[in-house]
Amino acid sequence: MKLQTVIQALNRIAPPQYACAWDTQIGLQIGDKNAEIKKILVALDITSALVALAAKQRADLIVAHHALFFRPLESIDLHSPLGKNIAKLIKNDIAVFIAHTNLDAAPDGVNWTLARQYGLTPETCEVLEPTYREQFYKYVVFVPAEAVEAVHGAIAVAGGGHIGKYSDCTFRGAGTGTFRPLAGTRPHIGRQGRLEKTPELRVETIIPVEKISDLLNAVRAKHPYEEIAYDLYPLKNSGRVYGLGLLGQPAPNSKYARYKKIAVASGSGGSLVQRAWDKGAKLLITGEAGYHDQLLAAELGLELKICGHRETEEIVVPILRQKLRAEFPALTVV
Ligand SMILES: [Zn+2]
Fold first, then answer.
1. Domain span including residue 60
2. Is 162 within any annotated ligand binding site?
3. Annotated binding-site residue? 65
4. Is 313 labelled as part of a ligand binding site?
């Protein structure tokens, strides 16, 4: 399996566009996209112990939550712990891929997992600090009847026509297309210089903004016309919001049900104290909070439950492993 293919799956699991704007150290930190991957190690942090384990177990890729290096490197000092790790990873052909705040925000990511642990239903929770708002376009394409199923297939594969738990959502209307092929054309239907009137279907669907170029390429491969007539309309439909921290009402059987609303924020969630309070939380469960954040919580009357940075994040590691195993049954994921 090429690393590039694994990266595509990781980008579906934790879309990079969900990351915080400051979090630029995500994605491939070390590696060759054409490298062959057989074994993947999933971890929270890339410590020297983990690098040693990866080398011993002949792993080809480490997928971690926290970056190997958080800032651009000015030098690689082979006496420093970081320099030693980088050297060992490269010498052993071990690639490094990071999913950080994009994994915090993703469905089934860190915050969703933490929310479920405390009796919340993440699908219905409000996001405390949005990092990404889904945006949609309406895509309309005019297709001769004989190509409509092929074009429909291309739309579906490219990610068009998804509404909630439904796929393949399109609308087709029949009509007459007109066109006059000019000099230099090689029309699929009609002749140069002559006005053509031909039955066509207007196929319309909805597409998330980040999938538009995939959709256009996929349709181009299946549509028989030399020039494809299509329209893209920006929509005002409000899509899903992704981000850091979740707020909601715990299930009635949860031991936290006595709080009307609770908030969870994986890792360092201290900065979300005010937002959690403003949105009506009576309890914020997080990994760590600084002195002043704790002071603010006490002043507001917001109860803080501090569970440890690692403890609120390592819960996602087995879930990430499961997802990679499901995507790539032929790979070893540990
Ligand atoms: Zn963290």
1. 3-100+315-333
2. no
3. yes
4. yes
